[in-house]
Design brief:
Blueprint (H helix, E strand, L loop, with lengths): L3 H16 L1 E5 L6 H6 L5 E5 L4 H17 L5 E6 L6 H7 L3 H6 L1 E3 L7 H8 L4 H10 L5 H6 L7 H7 L4 H9 L3 H9 L3 H13 L10 H20 L19 H13 L1 H18 L1 H4 L13 H16 L3 H11 L8 H26 L7 H28 L8 H29 L12 H10 L6 E6 L4 H11 L5 E7 L6 H6 L5 H4 E6 L2 E6 L2 E2 L3 H12 L3 E5 H6 L10 E6 L1 H8 L1 H4 L3 H17 L4 E6 L4 E2 L14 E7 L3 E6 L5 E5 L11 E5 L11 E2 L5 H4 E8 L11 E6 L6 E2 L5 E8 L9 E8 L5 E5 L11 E4 L4 E8 L6 E8 L5 E9 L4
Helix pairs in contact: 10-14, 13-14, 13-15, 14-15, 17-18, 17-19, 18-19, 19-20, 19-21, 20-21, 23-30
Length: 840
């Protein structure tokens, strides 16, 4: 065994070899004899304690010889004084020159004798701390005596490890071979007790000589010890007698707990033991009066204290506090719990929404002096508020708030969005009254077909796909553009909806010649759109317009049918119309849960584009009929009073057609002024973001930026090279190989492994979903964090592991398969077969 003297001398030799000249400052006179013993043909030692003048001359002479001698000798200057600090002290020190020419000892805090001892004897850190706590200046012999004859040979041999840290880790989270050794070896138990006493100051209570009781006691001991060390204030009286480590073992305990939390094999065991110890010691009750629990969240109830602080930051307009809590939570072991992920994702979404609304509200006066300026502001920036609000409401749908902590945050975020929306609507209506609709000189929805579809179809053999997507709000178009731009060129255009912004009218406006030939008629109390005199109220009537114009060059089907089935189109087809009504129809019927379906529609469009490439299509145009407003903050009385007059048509409780008088609640304009050609003289709509009937959580039909500013995406479907052989694998795992889930928000680990060194910087976009035996989706990723809220996909780079929470359908129980799929082709990378076990 190397003595502490030998360790220090070896360290000095190593430094001399690198620096050639070393000045050792030693005001405690600890190292003089060690330095003198280093004198040899290779090392010249100058002892400054012998006299300042002589030593300086000797050092100067030696330094000159050092520069010319071959081979060069190393120079060690021993100075019995403190290391000079700052330029003034160095100027006064005659030996500072040599330190600049070579090196200096001690160079930093790591060269303090205490830290040197820790490095020399890493297995005995607790004993070393105990020695220094009673004697700040222990001798070399006192340090050498530590651990003499106590190397735990049985443990080292049985576990095949050497360090104290590795032994302790094995006692807590053994590998399969180590667990087997604990069962078959007989002599480890007594030695383990001595080991724990020496390293942690732990007196093992259990009399059992088997592994499990000792390991369980050790888990409780080390977790509670970290909790106590991190606690800023006094320990509650109820916990005063719970065994814990000595203060000298603090660093050892902290390092071990960090290792347990971060090690793939131990992380799950850590979570389970921490939850169990928290219950066993009744920690939440014992610590209910403690406001500051420290910096660590050893136990889950501590994480809730950090969550409360993050909530307080939002409620008290202290965004920096919330952001700090969010940052620290990203590294927390409790991110491995789906319930915890849902709470923090909700807080993050709320903070993003609140901050964005406040920033946009500040910009609004300078960006809304004209209708043109306001529209540009919306398409460039304001639409971000819509996106963040949607993502917030999606996070709300995934929220598992068992402690009812987040109600105030929910209200605060919704109020801030609604306040911004109302201010924007006030400005929008003011410009609407002076400028009209659609905005002059800009793209109206009635022009979309003729400009983007009809023109390309004039070219012989040019194949175009025309997506008619119901309720694709502008911010969703931006999200879709970001997604599909990864696969090929795409341009996002801004169009302006035909009023009223309801599906029959909006879809009719996407037909050929709609700008000039669309007419809105009144039949009873129904609004009936007509194109060149023909009724186009439903899907079949609208598709007949294409059939009559294009004949066998036209084909149509639903987006879902195109993606989910094997499609073989006639060779004559140049225009393929793909229809989707899922967003609008589902939001109309169940707005509180349908937001979760939107990412699936966006993914489906991307998959369809990839399929269209394979079918030889050259171009795809993605258009929509109207946007929408999520009225999540709707309250009793949140309704607009109808203006006086005769209004036979009320479209979706957001717009009325007929005759009447404007008031403080509603605007009234001539129908022509708002781009409506029909059997009506006037049009009325709310000045606010409220409908004419209470209870709407989702609405459209009126004129607002969210309802009437629309995306049009034009994608070139260029042929891509044939995919190369896959050189990566996606690994999918759940709780160390468990086959049953006991929570409705299970967390899975997904990791990308690349076999090709040249693809180490590549990315793979993965879709994770749970499917029942019929292929129905029964579990989807929780949006936010590593999961793209718009597409619910995960982007992986090689050798990167991510923890992804799925929210299971609350009505589903039984066997299911979790599949990792290619986000573009839906090809399967990997899968896990599991089943539910919620009664555990």
């Amino acid at each position: 065994m190397v003595t502490i003297r030998e360790y220090v001398q070896n360290d000095l030799r190593s430094r001399l070899k690198k620096a050639e000249c070393l000045v050792l400052y030693d005001h405690e006179n600890r190292y003089r004899e060690l330095c003198l013993q280093l004198s040899s043909d290779e090392v010249q030692v100058i002892d400054a304690s012998a006299g300042s003048i002589d030593s300086r001359l000797s050092a100067l002479t030696s330094l000159r010889e050092l520069a010319t001698s071959k081979p060069r000798a190393n120079l060690l200057v021993y100075v019995p004084a403190k290391n000079p600090i700052g330029d003034l002290e160095r100027q006064r020190d005659p030996f500072a020159l040599y330190a600049i020419a070579g090196g200096v000892f001690p160079a930093d805090d790591a060269d303090e004798f205490f830290n040197i001892c820790l490095r020399a004897k890493p297995n005995h850190a607790t004993a070393i701390r105990q020695v220094f706590s009673t004697n700040p200046f222990p001798s070399f012999d006192a340090i050498d005596a530590i651990g003499r004859g106590v190397d735990w040979p049985q443990l080292r041999a049985a576990l095949k490890v050497d360090s104290a840290s590795d032994i302790l880790f094995a006692l807590l989270a053994p590998s399969d071979d180590q667990a087997k050794a604990f069962k078959t070896e007989e002599l480890w138990s007594q030695e383990a007790r001595a080991f724990l006493r020496a390293t942690l100051g732990m007196e093992v209570k259990t009399r059992s000589k088997t592994f499990s009781p000792l390991s369980e006691e050790l888990w409780r001991f080390i977790l509670f010890s970290e909790f106590v060390f991190d606690l800023p204030g006094p320990l509650p009286q109820a916990l005063a007698l719970v065994p814990r480590a000595t203060s000298e073992a603090k660093s050892f305990v902290a390092g071990m707990c960090d290792r347990l939390r971060n090690h793939p094999r131990a992380r799950l065991s850590y979570i389970e033991h921490a939850e169990e110890v928290e219950k066993e010691l009744i920690l939440p009750d014992a610590c209910r009066d403690i406001q500051d629990l420290g910096n660590l969240d050893t136990f889950p109830f501590e994480e809730r204290s950090f969550l409360r602080r993050a909530i307080d930051g939002i409620l008290n307009e202290n965004a920096d506090l919330t952001r700090r809590m969010l940052t620290r939570q990203e590294e927390s072991v409790w991110v491995g719990k789906g319930e915890s992920q849902s709470q923090w994702a909700f807080v993050r979404a709320a903070l993003n929404l609140v901050e964005a609304c406040e920033d946009l509200e500040r910009q609004l006066p300078d960006r809304s002096r004209s209708q043109e300026a306001l529209l540009d502001f919306y398409t460039q920036s304001l639409r971000e508020a819509d996106r963040l609000q949607r993502e917030f409401e999606q996070a709300r749908g995934f929220l598992f708030d068992q402690y009812e902590l987040l109600g105030e945050v929910e209200s605060r975020a919704r109020v801030r969005y609604r306040r911004l929306a109302e201010k924007v609507q006030t400005v929008f209506v003011r410009h609407l009254e002076t400028t009209g609709w659609p905005p002059p000189g800009r793209l109206a929805n009635g022009d979309v077909y003729d400009r983007f579809v009809g023109e390309p179809l004039k070219e012989s053999g040019h194949k175009v796909a025309y997506f008619m997507i119901d309720a694709l709000r502008y911010e969703l178009g931006v999200a879709l553009e970001k997604s599909i731009s990864e696969d090929g060129p795409v341009l996002l255009h801004t169009a302006f909806a035909q009023a009223p912004t309801i599906t029959p009218v909006g879809m009719a406006s996407l037909l050929p010649g709609a700008k000039l030939e669309l007419f809105l008629d009144c039949v009873g109390d129904s609004l009936v759109p007509k194109l060149a005199g023909a009724v186009v109220s439903n899907v079949n009537q609208r598709m007949d317009v294409f059939r009559k114009r294009l004949g066998d060059r036209f084909h149509e089907m639903t987006l879902n049918e195109f993606v989910r089935t094997k499609v073989k189109l006639p060779k004559t087809v140049d225009l393929l119309v793909l229809r989707s009504t899922e967003i609008d129809s589902q939001l109309e019927n169940n707005p509180e849960t349908t937001l979760e379906l939107i990412p699936g529609i966006l993914r489906m469009i991307r998959v369809a584009l990839n399929k269209l490439r394979d079918l030889g299509f050259h171009e795809a145009v993605i258009a929509t009929d109207h946007g929408f407003f999520l009225n999540a903050h709707a309250e009793a009385g949140d309704v607009c009073v109808k203006p006086q007059g005769n209004w036979p048509i009320v479209a979706h409780d957001r717009i009325m057609l007929g005759d009447g008088v404007a008031d403080s609640h509603s605007f009234v304009h001539s129908a022509n002024r708002l781009g409506i050609k029909g059997a009506f003289s006037q049009c009325a709509g709310p000045r606010s973001m409220a409908p004419y009937r209470a209870g709407h959580l989702y609405f459209h039909g009126g004129l607002s930026l969210s309802e009437a500013v629309l995306p049009v995406l034009v994608a070139r479907l260029e042929r891509v090279r044939k995919a190369e052989k896959r050189t990566f694998d996606v690994e999918l795992s759940y709780r160390g190989g468990a086959k049953k889930i006991t929570t409705r928000i299970p967390v899975f680990e997904v990791e990308l492994f690349s076999e090709n060194l040249f693809s180490q910087q590549s990315e793979v976009e993965v879709l994770l979903e749970a499917q029942d035996d019929k292929g129905n989706v029964v579990g989807e990723p929780k949006p936010g964090g590593d999961v793209n809220p718009a597409s619910r996909t995960i982007t992986l780079v090689p050798n990167e592991r991510k923890q992804i929470a799925l929210r299971m359908d609350p009505d589903f129980e039984g066997k299911f398969t979790v599949r990792a799929l290619d986000a573009i082709t839906l090809a399967m990378f990997n899968q896990l077969k599991l089943e539910t076990d919620y009664l555990q």
